[in-house]
Amino acid sequence: MSSELSPELFALNVASAVAASVAGAAWGKLTELPGLVTEALGRRRDKRTLESLLSDPDALAEVLGELIAEDPELADRFDEVLRQSRREAGGDVPEFPDPPPHATDREWERGELTRAIPQPVWRITGLRGSGKTTLALLSGHDQASRFPDGQVYIDLDRYRDGSDLARSEVAADILASLGIDREAIAFDSPRLWEQYRSVVNRRRFLLALDNARGVEEVRELSPTRPGSLAFVLTVHSDEALLAEYPHELPLRGIDRASGRRLLARYAGDGVVAADPQAVDELLDRCDDMPYAIIAVGVQLHRQARLHGPRAAGRVLAWLRDQGAGGAVEVIGRSLEETFRELPEHVVRACALLAEHPGTEVTTESAGVLLGTDPDGVLTELADAGLVSRVADGRLRLFNLVRDHASNRHGRAVRPEVDAGIARLLDHYRDRAAHADRLISPVRLRPYEALSPAAGTEPEPGFENGQHALRWLIGERFTLEALAAHAHRIGWDEHVVSLCGAAEQLVLNTEYHLRFVRMNTYGVSSAERLGRADLQARARGQQGRILSLLGDFGRAEGELRQALDLVGNLGDPELWSSTMENWGRHLQQRGYLTDAIGALRRCVEVDRTVGGHDGARAISIHARMLANMLLQSGELDEADRYLREATQAVLGHDLRNQSAIWTVRAKAELHARRIDSARSAIHYARELAWRAGTTQYEEQQALVLADVCVAEGDVDGARRLWGPIWQRYYHAGHPRAAELYARITAGA
Question: What's this model's pTM, rounded to 2 decimal places?
Fold first, then answer.
């Protein structure tokens, strides 16, 4: 219900949507809001009209707050309109992944969680293997209708580097799961968290935070809107977590009927029915814990194939002989027996997979690590209850299985592990280099000399640059884990290559924090290699991203070191690229005059390079410089650099041509040559369309809106601002307020 929101916040949200709709800048369901407000004012016999209130945004928000407080039904109507508008803008409602095949009923616990709605955060606690994740997923599916904005499941362990959690990346992925376009997600930390709070305060959704470790990460990420709910899944709750979030559902054993059903799922109904007394004793020894029951079920299935359906007595006797009297011991003994009975090649494969860097494997990475088609092995491991499928087709060894395989069988496969990891590192180094080249055929890549595949034609596995970028995004966790592993074992050339290709994650996505963390290994490996050029590149990129994230102190330190390194190399391209990063850092900090000086030096050096490389560098840096000069009001000089950029740009580089003509349109606007500005921005948009890029779409729409304002076509400008505002409005992005002000002012 809308009344569950802070009334002030909700009224402000509705007020901005009403004003934008009246101004003609909104579309779809939002256009219904002015009529609802007018009807409500009429029912109230309020002498003020919507038109009079629009001139005073504070008064409009105040009146809407009163209407919402007086009429809960109207508040519900507003809430439904906003929600349907988000559907129009954001696509499908997110859902939890399907529960695993071994999911147990847990009817009582599911009932408790269904009644948990009045409390915003519930801790689900229990040992590994107790079924916390399964219960959360089942409960989410039970309650889907209660959360109209969906359900988001996050495994926090995917975002950890040791004990450090990449919280901003978690927040960005939650926003993306809630339907926020990744291009509309702020990447600098303060604005990201402002946006995160804005979005979760508007949404009514269910969030599951798996493998939570402390109160700070729960406090930052959990939704605060009443009617939303967070499940916090943790093995242990420290005192701070317990004090702040006292509502707990501790998981112990499942009920006996569910235990029998789970056992039957692996052992067969006939086996469970053949000896009910022995089955009950087995469940007692398992402490009714789901994973222990699964482990025993696998044993029962194998014994039944050999000795018939009355296998429960045999397994029970074996566990007694082993002295296994609790869930942990049962799991350990059962895993030993399962591994003993698996074919040797499957055991060795499992031990190899246990050494896979990171927490998850894909079919692709498993095949590379094993050196063979993995489908048969993965099927056998799944049938034995040793691996589970997680999101995006990935697989995960259960932690207990990973530990057992590594501790008991790791030594036997040590030579194979070393060879498999080498294959894995080579494969991902080369695959990432191919992806990088396909995404951006022409860009500076100092790491290419280290990667045999970097300078070759992209392999046929990628359909196009977008496909290659999606692969990089999907493999980002694996790439970081591989970089960390390669750094640890001293494969520094592979580290630098992986980090070099991963630059695409910050050129085309918002994964800035992940790159900074991963590139820390790149900086260190470049130093160990003693390559000043690689160090300069790695530190320059690190400084650039830190500056974008607003960490100016660290950014300046990295960039100054990069400039010192590159100064004596005699590599004008790398020097110019590093100086560009420095100039953009200065611009980010508001030092526009110094930034202009840095870009001037870039262009001067670019002119000495010659050839295609020099021309490309000039076209980029002269365009950037012209844009800065326009900001400072130096129109004539901006025009000169724009001409130079236009002359230098390569004929096939349609993306850069589009960017140049966008700046040209701005220059024509500054000079009050409105017709020329319109022609330039239309040509820029045509070039972007021909290049198949949407990178400049928003910027070009805003320039065209400025052209409309200059022509006196305020309605035309509002039609252009509207979709951008609506996108940012639903995304909770700070820029929504700026666009809202322009829409209402018409300028």
Answer: 0.72
3-state secondary structure of 147: coil
Out of 34-38, 562-566, 633-637, which region has the weakest mean confidence (pLDDT)?
A: 34-38
φ/ψ of 151, rounded to 5, equals -135, 140
Q: Which residues contact 688 (CB under 8 A, 6 or more apart)?
A: 654, 655, 658, 694, 695, 696, 697, 700
The predicted-structure confidence for 134-173, as pLDDT tens digits, reads as follows 888 888 888 887 888 889 999 888 888 777 788 888 898 8
Whose tokens are 């988000």? That residue is 86
Say if CB 262 and CB 286 are below 8 A apart.
no
The β-bridge relationship of strands 229-234 and 206-210 is parallel
The answer to whether the beta carbons of residues 278 and 308 sit under 8 Å apart is no
Strands (E) in 340-393, as ranges, are 387-389
Nearest CA among 706, 702, 713 for reference residue 735: 702
Q: How far apart are CA 547 and CA 646, in angstroms?
A: 29
Asked if 126 and 312 count as a contact pair (C-beta separation under 8 A), the reply is: no
What confidence tens digit (pLDDT) does each residue in 31-64 have? Answer: 888 888 888 888 877 777 777 777 777 788 788 8
Q: Are strands 387-389 and 395-397 parallel, antiparallel or unpaired?
A: antiparallel
d(CA 332, CA 114): 34
- How is residue 729 written in tokens? 């409005």
Query: What's the CA gap between 211 and 219, in Å, rounded?
Result: 14
The DSSP-derived string for 633-653 is T-HHHHHHHHHHHHHHS-TT-
Please report, as a single letter, which amino acid is at residue 296: V
Measured between alpha carbons, how far is 435 from 438 in angstroms, rounded to an integer? 5
Two tokens, residue 535: 């160090």
CA distances from 341 to 268, 321, 414 (A): 19, 18, 21
Task: Report the C-alpha gap between 184 and 275 in whole angstroms.
Answer: 60
C-alpha span between 120 and 238 (Å, rounded):
19
Name the amino acid, one letter, at 449: A
Contact 396, 430 (CB under 8 A): no
> What's the one-letter identity of residue 357?
P
CA distance 335 to 324: 12
388: phi then psi, degrees, rounded to nearest 5: -130, 155
In the block, residue with structure tokens 């409009």: 60
> 3-class DSSP state for residue 233?
strand
Query: In the 8-state DSSP scheme, what is residue 361?
Result: B
For the CA atoms of 196, 198, 204, 207, the dihedral, rounded to the nearest 10 degrees, stands at 10
φ, ψ for residue 251 (rounded to 5)? -100, 125
Which residues 6+ apart lie within 8 Å of 510 measured at CB? 172, 182, 183, 185, 187
DSSP structural state of residue 257: H
The whole-angstrom separation of Cα 187 and Cα 170 is 12
**Helix-, strand-, coil-residue percentages of the chain, each rounded to 5:** 70, 5, 25
List, as own/partner pairs, every contact residues 190-196 make where C-beta atoms lie below 8 angstroms and the sequence separation is at least 24, other chains included: 190/550, 191/733, 191/734, 192/168, 193/168, 193/220, 194/732, 194/734, 195/731, 195/732, 195/733, 195/734, 196/171, 196/732
Tokens coding 100: 């695993």
Least confident residue range of 174-178, 498-502, 708-712: 174-178
684: nearest Cα among 701, 705, 707, 709: 701
**C-alpha triplet 603, 606, 609: angle, nearest 5°:** 165
**Distance separating the N- and C-terminal Cα atoms of the chain:** 36
Query: Residue 611 in contact with residue 630, Cβ under 8 Å?
Result: no
